[in-house]
C-alpha cells in the first residue's frame, strides 16, 4: 500500500473508531440503569427481604404457639379424666394421688399458658409489622413500575439510534481494506476500545497518544510517511493525525 493510500486508510480507520467509540457509549447507556431506578429497585428488594424475614419468623412463632396450644388441650383433657377418676377413688390414698396428679397437670398447663402469652403478643406485633411492610411495598410498586417503563422506553429509543449508527459504521467500514479492518478490530478488543491512535509531537519527540510512550525515531518517520505502523509499546496502529 502506498503512503497516500496508507494515510487515507488510517484516517478513515480513525473516523471509524470515533463511530465505534460513540456506539460503545450508547450501548453502555442502554445497559446502565438510571440511578433513580436502581435506588427504587434496591428499596423494593430490601422491603421484600425484610417481609420474607418477618413472615418466616411469624411462621416459627406460630408453630411454637400451636404446639403449646395442642399440649394445653391434651393436658386439659387429661386433667378432666383425672378429675372423673378421682370421683371413683375408693380410698384417701387414691384421692391424694389423684389430687397430686391433677395439681401437676394444672401447674404444667399454667406454665404453658405463661409461655404462650409472649408468643401470642409477638405474633400480633409481627402481624402489624408485616401489614406495614406490605403497605410500603404497595405504595412503592407503582413508582417502581413507572420507572421501569420509562427505562424500557429509553432503551428502545437508544436501540433505534444504535441501529442507525451501526448502519453508518458499516458503510464507513466498506472503505477500509479488509485486512486492516480485521487488524484494527482485534487490537480494539484487546486495548479497551482503541485500535488506532494519533502520534503526538512534544518538542522534538513523538509520543503515542494511547500509552504516552516516546516513539523511536524510525517508527515516527514511518508514521509521518503514512506507513501502517504499530506502537512498539501498546501495539495500537499509529496515525500521524
From TrEMBL:
InterPro entries named in the record:
CT398_CC_hairpin, Oxidative_Scav/Glycosyltrans, Zf-RING_7
Q: Where is the CT398-like coiled coil hairpin domain?
A: 16-190
Source species, domain of life: Bacteria
Bias class Basic and acidic residues marks the residues at: 77-88
Which residues does the UniProt record annotate as the domain C4-type zinc ribbon? 207-238
Region (Disordered) location? 77-97
Note the Pfam families from the entry. Answer: CT398_CC, Zn_ribbon_9
Please give the name of this protein. Answer: Zinc ribbon domain family protein
